[in-house]
Amino acid sequence: MRKVIALLVVLPCLVALIALAAELPAFGDADNPANNEVVERYIRQGVEETGAINVVAEILMDYRAYDTLIETTVLFCALVAVLLVLKGEVKKDA
Fold first, then answer.
1. Residue 21 and residue 40 in one domain
2. Is the distance from CB of 42 to CB of 58 less than 8 angstroms?
3. Interval 26-73: pLDDT, tens
4. Backbone dihedral angles phi then psi of residue 75, each to the nearest 5 degrees
């Protein structure tokens, strides 16, 4: 019975994922959302706006600093939660 329920949940998800993947734009296509004006601005005006010489450092530390900080905070909180769960409760013998 569990296998049937699992199959009824997984199959529609699989069909939806395949249908969505078929709708993705081709890799390298000019209309691809990854090829928008933001990337061009980072490359062309990044040095003037940030003063950084390295493009990667410029993007991470100036344009996306808060995003990077929040991602690091989330990973740290997840690590602490996992460690607390794995540690468990210490039972004292009476």
1. no
2. yes
3. 887 777 777 778 888 888 888 888 888 888 888 888 888 888 889 999
4. -65, -40
